[in-house]
């Protein structure tokens, strides 16, 4: 079909799409608590004529909207959760929280979900007009930041019947995501001891805080003996109280254990669990643990990635006003550093040279170009629950520039730019890339077949879900 019609549809629907994005920015709800956000999405889906299912896989804020019939079945993934501690006024180049210690859309998920929905609406319109055949499904996926909603959905086989899944993520570049990333297991450890007067009769007490601290120390020594692509992070969620003259009877830690694959992450986790048991033995306390969530490593699909790259080039690149460029420049000054997009990753030297030329040696405040695509293997130390989708169906994703060059994710700067013209334009660009890619998949069964053949090869080992049946989705 003529993709210009898809683009025009997205432009025509932009007031609703951008309004939804700004609405989700205002809500700024944490993982698995996105009640108002989910309701807003469901209302739009119903108004647009989608068949809506809510509370998917027993998760109150997970939902889907489908339109059409038969195959191919193309899934478009959306997210909408925020981050704690990142409350920020919009449109200012200085740190100004709206609410002290409040939440904010520091990863741009207000943009992510809205663009994905915009693409789904455009494909729905094309199906309704008889221009495309098949089924489009928008998935509202909660809890990416802390509770891995897609993993729970994948555990229930939700994405297995798709012919392909596509998604995107806000960022500071326009590029296809390729390679893989770390699998991650998130655990809670709770130490239980006996309270006592820290001066009067400390021998009667058993300090849970001592147990927690010894566990942390034991893990520090473990770090020397991990494989290079492994990492472990932790936080003290409960230190047992603020009174130093009490032997603390309770303490709680939250750990994230990452490795190249789920199998390796589970093996490393077993060593961490042994350290927890040893710490409890040394401190005379008891320790219990349970899993919060987990994510898998991502399977790359070069067939879909090449298709996304083609559509990144075909869709009209945003044009920015002088005011938008000035705001980007002002924000960029609040996080000064040198270098080019992607300097922190291993990259093909030819690609590095091309990026240097395109970005005026890193001096652009907005990266208004498409990064050349190279399907070379790249490993990211971060994690995403998109990885679990990729083990059930051919999956690919990309980024568009929705915030200034070299601004990091999970920052107040991202929140500040989240309702700006730059962010809106990156959102609409992403929606057009997604819609164009979905249309290509619906019209060309050969692409889908090649993508499936590659998937069958890379996923031959089978999906090993990082969470067991006993793990329940919950707010952290």
Tell me the major beta sheet. 7 strands, mixed
Tell me the count of domains.
2
Helix content: 25-40%
Rounded average pLDDT: 94
> Order of strands across the widest beta sheet?
1-2-4-3-5-13-6
Shape: globular
**CATH first level of the largest domain: which class?**
Alpha Beta
- Beta-strand percent range: 15-25%
Distance separating the two termini: 45 Å
CATH architecture of the largest domain: 3-Layer(aba) Sandwich
Number of helices: 14
What's the helix and strand layout?
Blueprint: H1 3-12, H2 14-27, H3 35-47, E1 51-54, E2 63-68, E3 73-78, H4 109-128, E4 135-140, H5 149-155, E5 164-171, E6 175-177, E7 180-181, E8 183-192, H6 208-222, E9 231-238, E10 250-259, H7 262-283, E11 286-295, H8 302-314, H9 322-333, H10 349-358, E12 379-380, H11 386-390, E13 395-401, H12 412-417, H13 421-443, H14 445-458
Parallel strand pairs: 3-4, 3-5, 5-13, 7-12
Antiparallel strand pairs: 1-2, 2-4, 6-13, 8-10, 8-11, 9-10
Helix pairs in contact: 1-4, 1-13, 2-3, 2-4, 4-13, 6-7, 8-13
Protein model, in words:
The chain has 14 helices and 13 strands. The chain has helices at residues 3-12, 14-27, 35-47, 109-128, 149-155, 208-222, 262-283, 302-314, 322-333, 349-358, 386-390, 412-417, 421-443, 445-458; strands spanning 51-54, 63-68, 73-78, 135-140, 164-171, 175-177, 180-181, 183-192, 231-238, 250-259, 286-295, 379-380, 395-401. Helix 6 (208-222) crosses helix 7. The protein has 476 residues and is of the alpha/beta class. It folds into two domains: 3-180 and 297-458, Aminopeptidase (3-Layer(aba) Sandwich); 183-295, 2-Layer Sandwich (Alpha-Beta Plaits). The strands form three sheets. A seven-stranded mixed beta sheet has the order 1-2-4-3-5-13-6.
